[in-house]
Structures are given as structure tokens and as C-alpha cells.
Amino acid sequence: MAPDVNASQEKNELLGIQEAMPSAPGIAEPVFSQFPPFAKYYLYDHLGNTRMLYHVECKLVQAGEPPLYNGVRYFVDQAIDYYPFGKVLREYILSGSSNTKYKSTGHERDKETSLDYRLARYYDSEIGRFLAVDPMKEKHLDHSPYSYCANNPILFLDPDGRDWYKDSEGHYRYNKDLNSVNSISILKKGETWLGFKYTEQTKNGTNEYRSDGSIFFGSQSDGVTYMVWATTKDGDSGGKQKEQFAFVNGNTMMVTPDLNNEALRSRPEESGYKVKDGTFYDPIDGTSKKYETTAHTHAPDKNYPNDDKPSGEDQLASIKMGYGFVLGIGSNNVYGYNSKGWFSTNLKVSDFKIGKKIPLYGKR
Q: What is the mean pLDDT of residues 132-140?
């Protein structure tokens, strides 16, 4: 049980790090209601819990006012302490500031129910339990299917129980069974657990490995390189290959999860990426996003090692999705297609490594 403290003492303890120069690992929404507008910054602990929100203002110094750092004043909008399983122990909110909805492990806390939406399941921080069984419960028979982080929330973090890791060759892989608790037993020598999401910066741009197994690539060069590798990452036999599918917008690519894909077929809509009127629905943030064209791989399968042109099924899909492109891994050719047939682009799959891009032919 928390010790009794008066309001002044509690505020001082919560704001104990205010005198140190804050850092800014994350940025909240801009505040345009005040002039000049400013941004609020999140400070997190090692578990991803939101511990403080602050904003920065530049003002003239008046006698007796709080200390300034290089002419800049830091204002704490909110500070939060937690019990081990995520329940709020105490918090300070600056007068006039809003209460953030992103709290324990950085996930959204519903205002009406106080439940945390942790992607795979809802979580109740009052009792430290999920409200639904673990979808991978048969792999963890020694723990309750409702427990959180094997009842060790100080050491472990399990945002949704489906995580990314780096293999021994430096490739990023997604494992629907992996989490921080079982990573020690699942991962092999030379492999590194990365978490339920991961951001990579390359010379070509920023790549975001997302919590459902999708990846947003900041460049077609990185995106195509990944798609080619991922198609045969588990072997080059037909039973182990998986087509890769991406929505293309400018130089960026959204590669959808391949959990439901097969050697000769990709299924983005079965992973929640539904298409309508030139947009696709993004199940991570719940918004519709525009795209200019699509691209998917044809594996070097024994049925078409040197003839991996678009299929009749591809042409049929283009009626809804618009024209698209096939990355023929076996032939190294890039083909375009629409509902009327396919066409050559005079582009090679290997050309993307030197900065070439998928050609766009105007409107979908």
C-alpha cells in the first residue's frame, strides 16, 4: 500500500526529475489552441510506461521564477507513478492540461472502462489480468492463460505477445509466438529479441517493423530487397515459400503481413488490409491510406522458374485494386498488369538495389 503523503509532498516526489534536463524520446500531439503552438513530449521508463509529459516554452525571465535552461523553460503537464501491474498509483496533472490516454506500457487506456487495449487482448490493470485467454496458451501450459508477463511485470514486457527479432544473419523476422518472456527459450544463438515493434534507420530511409507483422518501408529499395528475401526466407521449395505483397505510394511501401500467404498467393485482406476506392485500411491505426499501385512477388517455384509473369488471378484482382506489378524472382523481371493483360517494364528486380523505382503510369 502506498504511504500517505500530502499534496505538496506528492507533487515534489512525482516531479523529482524536473530539475534534470529532460530528453524527448517521443512527441505527443501538437497543441494548436495556444499561441505560439507547442508540442508535448513523452518520457518513458524501461517498460514503456508513460512517466511524464512536458512541453517547452521560451519566455522572458522574471525575478523569482523557476530556473531556465539555455533560455528555455520546461513545463510538466503530467507525471504518473504505477503499481507493478499498471494501475495508476498517483499522478499530477498541470491545471488546464488534458489527461493522456496512453499510460501503462504506452497503450491506450479506455476512459469509460479503464481497460488497456493491448492489440491482441484487453487488459485490466486493477487485477493484473487479461480479459481473454492467451491465443498461444498451449505453448505456455505452466502459466495461466490470463496472466500478464508470467506474473513478473517488472522484468518482462508483453505488449501483445507477437514480436520481432533479428536472426543470426541480420535479417528481421516476425514470430507470432514470441514475446519477452519466452524469447530466451525460443531464440537461438546469435538471434536478438527486438520487441513488438521496431524502427530501423538505413541510408535509404526509415523502416518501421509493426506489431502485426507488417512493415512500412521508407524506400522502394529497402522494401523490394526485403520482399525478395522474405519470399524464400524459409527455403526455396514450394511448400515453404510465401508471396509478399505491398501497397506502393511514391517511394514508400507498406508490406503487409504474410501469415496468411502461400507460395502462389498473397492475402492482404485476410490480415485486415481491405481495399476500397484507391485506399487500403490500416488495421494498426484504424485509418484509410491512399496508394498508387501494388507489388507482389512470384517465387522461383519449379512451375515457373523462368516464366513468372502475372497470372489470370492477378489480372482479376486488378479490377478492384487497380494495375499492379509482379517481382519475378526466378527471371529477375518486373512485369506490370491490369485487367486486360500484362506488359513488360524493362526493369529488373535487381535494379532496385541501385535506386530504380516501380514505374507509375498515371492514375489507377
A: 69
86: which DSSP letter?
A: S
pLDDT digits (tens, 9 = 90+) for 201-215: 999 999 999 988 999
What is the per-residue pLDDT across 46-78, written as a single tens digit (0 to 9) for each?
A: 777 889 988 877 665 566 666 555 566 778 889
- Angle in degrees, CA 272, 132, 107, rounded to 5: 65
CA torsion through residues 213, 203, 285, 49, sign: positive
Task: Give the separation between CA 343 and CA 323, rounded to whole angstroms.
Answer: 11
How many Cα atoms occupy the beta-carbon half-sphere of 213 within 13 Å? 23
What integer pLDDT is reported at residue 38 of this predicted model?
A: 61
* Cβ burial, residue 67 (10 Å; 0-12/13-18/19+): exposed
The owner of cell 488497456 is 116
Please spell the DSSP secondary structure of 288-310, one letter per residue: EEE-SEEEEEE---TT-SS--PP
Name residues whose C-beta falls within 8 Å of residue 122's C-beta, 6 or more positions apart in sequence: 115, 116, 130, 131, 132
Among 296, 313, 303, smallest CA distance to 349 is for: 296
Residue 86 near residue 123, CB atoms below 8 Å? yes
For residue range 9-45, list pLDDT tens digits in order: 444 444 443 333 333 344 444 444 454 556 778 888 8
The type of residue at 278 is G
Q: 250-263 burial string, b = 16+ CB within 10 Å, else e?
A: ebbbbbbbbeebeb
Choose among 77, 327, 71: nearest CA to 220: 327
What does the pLDDT read at residue 151? 83
196 near 211, Cβ under 8 Å?
Answer: yes
Provide the grid cell at 319: 479490377
3-state DSSP helix/strand/coil % of the chain, to nearest 5: 15, 35, 50
pTM of the model: 0.60
CA atoms within 13 A on the CB side of 18: 22
